[in-house]
Amino acid sequence: MRELGIGDLARKVKLRPSALRYYESLGLLPTARRVTGRRVYPASTLRRVALIKMAQRAGFTLAEIRQLLDTDADRGATKQWRTLAERKIPELDQFIQETQALRNAVADCLACGCMNFDSCQLLSYGTPEDDA
Amino acid sequence: MRELGIGDLARKVKLRPSALRYYESLGLLPTARRVTGRRVYPASTLRRVALIKMAQRAGFTLAEIRQLLDTDADRGATKQWRTLAERKIPELDQFIQETQALRNAVADCLACGCMNFDSCQLLSYGTPEDDA
DNA sequence: CTTGTGGTTCAAGCGCGCTTGAAGTCAAGG
DNA sequence: CCTTGACTTCAAGCGCGCTTGAACCACAAG
Fold first, then answer.
1. HSE-CB of A63 using CA atoms within 13 angstroms
2. Exposure string (b/e) for A92-126, b if CB count within 10 Å is 16 or more?
3. Which pLDDT score, from 0 to 100, does residue B78 have?
4. Which residues have a Cβ under 8 Å from the Cβ of A17 and sit 6 or more positions away?
5. Where is the HTH merR-type domain (chains A, B) (predicted)?
6. Please, which positions of strand D sit below 7 A from a protein CB?
């Protein structure tokens, strides 16, 4: 199976066809080949949608993802992508750290037997004593 | 400074006063004490807002965070919070893994000198060969 | 007293990421 | 032939997380 209809693709990537059309309209997916008016996708689209979903989970907006994926492959795009990527890596790092902290906090808090997250004695990070 | 007005609090936590009022309206923050009609917050609110923001970044909805923080501290709430927390920990773990993967992918891709994320030779993960 | 600053409530609006509805096209099956 | 069902386009709608605007209130400085 080297090609997919929009329904098949949607089922595989667990999105609705409408979402895929929406992505196309935003330039997140290249304009699909049409066969008697219907979209037909190459199998490689699976990978692309997987990337989109992953980036999305990591907090990129669809507009940013569009830049990352560089659908139109225009001349300056490579540099654009590099700039965005360089900007995003430290953001991702910080994000990962924070999420780790939250995960551990939740786990510790469960272990300590406290009533709820807010009242847990173990938690102290993240309280801004600092700035004005 | 043990108590804060809404403007002070907003400045410290880097949110707008409107967001704090909104949180209160959702039950995310306890109904603030009023002094001649105006909200006055104890310093502990800083910590609470920090928790809210952290949980939010980790992909919890405000409704879920409300449950985690258990504002109303009702009888069954402790169990509710534990259930939610237990459900969320593996989600957070998976999320962290995925974000790590993305971070590394972006970094590798930058290093490999490819044109863009989609065309990078190094990337192969995340392609669903599996299910129907 | 007046003006300014920063609060209050409430309802409406906005941006994002889709979804839904209306109206139409096409291909296969009974 | 006629239905069924999956698709098409386009515009409008929705839920979330706030923001904004209108109308009002309270205290402080000039």
1. 0
2. beebbebbbebbebbbebbeeebebbbebeebeeb
3. 64
4. A6, A7, A10
5. 3-71
6. 6-9, 16-21, 25-27
Alpha helices in B1-132 (DSSP H): 6-13, 17-26, 44-57, 62-69, 77-112
Q: How many Å does it take to go from CA B90 to C1' D25?
A: 50
Who among residues 3-32 of B has its Cβ near strand D, under 7 Å? 15-16, 18-19, 21-23
**Residue B13 in this model has a pLDDT that exceeds 80:** yes
Q: Which amino acid is at B123?
A: L
> Gap from B46 CA to C7 C1', in Å?
20
Contacts of B54 (CB under 8 A, 6+ apart): A98, A101, A102, A126
Give CA separation, A59 vs A37, B23, B57, B105, in Å.
34, 22, 8, 15
Tokens representing A11?
């089922």
| B32: nt with nearest C1' to CA | C8
Lowest mean pLDDT among A59-68, A86-95, B112-121: B112-121
